[in-house]
Amino acid sequence: MRKLAPNELRLLLVFCAAIFIALNLFGFQAWKSARGGLTREIADAKAALAESQMWIDAAGGLGPGQEWIQAHPPESLTSDAASTALLEFTRASADENGLKVIEENLLPSVSVAAGTATALQAKLSGSFAGVTKFLFKLQYPTSWRSVPKLIIRSDTEPPNVLVELEVHQYYTPATIPGP
């Protein structure tokens, strides 16, 4: 093999340096991509760990609620008895607090996590103070009633309000003994 001329030697060195730099750039790009992927995986793992910790904390907070539910279970009623009891209680409580029942509609029973719920839609009229007392009595914790829908509007007579609400009464279905 012949000896390289100085220009050829310089060209070979430049070519080798270019290849060396190109390979280093490719290596740096691969390292940077792997580092970014690893950083994303660490961030995802931290987020998943934080979410898991949140669920663990929430589950710990639900313990006393679950104990209360077990200590105060909903009544065991039939669907008709629950609807009747809800209707009678709503009427009596409205009268007791000076509210006038304008309209009321019973809705069909629905299965929920705590058992079954019967619902009543009602429109009432009366003073705002009477409405607040009515709502407080209606949603007493051990009564297993809730008000998922509530609309309060001003009446034509200034101190009075019109109330549209939906009341749910939760109960566990009673088994009817056979003949």
Detailed description of the structure:
- This protein starts with 5 loop residues before the first helix and ends in a 6-residue tail after the last strand.
- β4 (145-154) and β5 (160-173) form a beta hairpin.
- The chain has helices at 6-71, 79-96, 128-138, and strands spanning 76-77, 100-112, 115-127, 145-154, 160-173.
- It is elongated.
- The chain is an alpha+beta fold and 179 residues long.
- Strands 1, 2, 3, 4 and 5 form a 5-stranded mixed β-sheet that branches.
* Poorly predicted residue ranges: none
* Largest sheet: number of strands, sense, barrel closure: 5 strands, mixed
> How many beta strands in the DSSP annotation?
5
Residue fraction in strands: 25-35%
Shape: elongated
**Number of helical regions:** 3
* Helix coverage percent: 40-55%
User: H/E element string?
Assistant: HEHEEHEE
- Structure class: alpha+beta
Distance between the termini: 113 Å
Backbone CA Rg: 36 Å
Q: Mean of residue pLDDT?
A: 89
